[in-house]
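[audit] Reproducing an earlier prediction to check determinism. Same input, same settings, fresh worker. If the tokens differ from the archived copy the diff job will pick it up downstream; this log only records the rerun itself.
[audit] input (138 residues):
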Amino acid sequence: MDARDAELKKELDATLHARRELGDEYESALVDSFLEKVDQRIDGAVDRRVRRQLAEQQMVVARGARSPQATDSWGERFGFGIVSLVLAIPLSAIGATAHLPGLLITWMGIVGVNVVQAMRVFPSFGRRGDKPEPDWEG
């Protein structure tokens, strides 16, 4: 039990004690008063949570687009590779029905999907250094 719960418990005990002393005619007023305090406590907690989430969103916006490394975990990349290899087995069998050309096309597709995934996760993947593009127009 944390300090806020202990404080709320004290409020409830005080409300129950006041009800015993004042009688049934003040019961609804005491309950309303206690519920108002509970509502204030809940509103404060919700306000703090909303402010924290808004601050986090503002930090993300201030930083710009998140890097793919921040959004893609190692487990996702590993899982993608495993699924790709597992699916390569039946796809190879299907592609092999067209002999070598079908098998080559199947594997070019598998490699292509993995290259696209790698470029999404690592935008610098497959690029050659920082060489500028040649100016063909003159």
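[audit] rerun output stored. Observation attached for the diff report: The two ends are 75 Å apart (CA to CA).
[audit] end
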